[in-house]
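Minutes, project huddle
Topic: does the predicted pose make sense with flavin-adenine dinucleotide bound?
PN asked that the exact inputs be recorded in the minutes so nobody has to dig through chat later. Recorded below.
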Amino acid sequence: MPSLLPENSWRADPTLRAVLESWLRPQTLAWAEPALIEMGRAAVDELPAWGDACERQPAALRAFDGWGDRIDEVIYPPAWRELAAVAAQTGLVAVPFETQTLARAGAEARLVQAALCYLFAPSTATYLCPVAMTDGAARVLADVAGGAANEVLRHLISRDPAMAWTSGQWMTERQGGSDVGRNAVVAKREGDHWRLFGQKFFCSNIGCEVALALARPEHAPAGTRGLALFLVPRDRPDGRRNSYRIDRLKDKLGTRAMATGEVTLDGAYAELVGEAERGFAQMTAMLNITRLHNAVTAAATMRRACMLASAYAAQREAFDRKLNQHPLHQEVLETIAGQADGALYLTMRMAQLLGRIETKEATSGEAALFRLGIALTKLYTAKQAVAVVSEALECFGGQGYMEDTGLPRLLRDAQVLPIWEGTTNVLALDGLRVLRRADTLDCLAAELERLDAPERRPALDAAHRAVRADTDSAERAARQVAFALTEAWMSGLLQASGTSVRLPGIGLRPR
Ligand SMILES: Cc1cc2nc3c(=O)[nH]c(=O)nc-3n(C[C@H](O)[C@H](O)[C@H](O)COP(=O)(O)OP(=O)(O)OC[C@H]3O[C@@H](n4cnc5c(N)ncnc54)[C@H](O)[C@@H]3O)c2cc1C
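Predicted holo structure (tokens), as shared on screen:
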């Protein structure tokens, strides 16, 4: 069977090109295009080969050295380092932080970064997860600025693979991930730094050089109010290994190449980031960015699944015709492609808003739109990625179920997207909370009006009813409201771009 991938995934993606052609200034596009072409080439050449190698030989934990001393070293295959090098050299984290890039692209830097990540993501064994957390950490450190934060930031945004570091994001503990206010890791002050004690239960990219961790300073109040944010380096300033143990690497359904550890902090050296009282707010800023990367990954995964299914349908025959000549199969292919298009447009709208917020160009309305939109976008695209990949897998019939086609891995890796960075329920409730804030609904109504979004009236009516309802009824309706608003928004963006609107039609939208 000839390869099902195109020669260049940038050139083969008219929707991505259309978004950038209409949303970037011509000079920004001209500057970005060589990198996009190169990433589109690599994404169907060496990147998938390295991604496959990482999947075949996942990272392993070397807890002890030959003399029985703990070393807690994560051993990665060489291909993982190759992926890390491409991510650094292309500036997947650096683009929206570099002075020179910002001078050239301004707020549009976030759109360029999102496009590069979108091309990189589907071939690279979930390496975009480390990129996402590193980007989030860089944002937080750039905002607090000063001292150690500046030094670490320099490494996080370095384009030199020998200098570049990645970050982890340590929130979740055994007693709760969504309910982060129950966090029990304790921080004890020791002179100018802190020591952390307790366990973090899900630590992805566990080979990272630094992590941002939530912990509760002694005597701080319960709940999220009492959580502070700490920078936890792998190595202490004196060069010794920091005092945390990687108890084990998790045995996961997917994301197998990307090591996720359980960590015991045993008086780990840590530095406070910003003001202690702002820990949870700072982590939320980090989450806004990791949620955007989650949506980028979801959109990219959908596009990859659609490309594979379309290419297969052009080759495979059934009942004397190619699959893509059967009207019902055409209907399925167009429906999943519509979902991929909608996901890309909405995700890029979030990247556009984030860029404007970071460069201080955004109005208060745009900031409110992003705050709501990022929860809706992450929630919806993640859920639909699973549905779309599942449908694309079925488009291959029995072969889709076979490991060597790569489709099972795409589905396994998609399945984490609705869970981490906030589950569907948690984000639907977050959306509801944001909708209750003054003006948010008005801002969204204005956006949907501007786009002349189909189905906007029923979606906005449902949102108005939910914010006025009693708590239990509002919570029960939260998913339905979130899905309806998101579909109206996506349909509006597609319609405004002249792309045909084919939403909904697939997936798990609650009725
Ligand atoms: C592969 C992988 C890697 C991860 N990496 C990291 C990492 O690097 N750093 C990190 O901090 N975390 C990480 N996580 C953890 C992840 O963020 C949490 O698993 C997630 O936030 C959910 O938390 P939980 O597992 O405690 O589930 P719970 O919070 O116990 O949720 C269980 C179910 O209850 C629902 N639920 C919870 N609260 C409500 C509510 N109020 N109303 C309605 N329904 C509700 C949820 O939607 C979910 O369906 C990772 C998870 C996975 C699977």
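Observations noted during the meeting:
- The chain has three domains: 1-165, 167-274, 278-506.
- Residues 168-172, 176-179, 202-204, 252, 255, 260, 416, 419-420, 423, 425-426, 429 surround flavin-adenine dinucleotide (CB under 6 Å).
No decisions taken; revisit at the next huddle.
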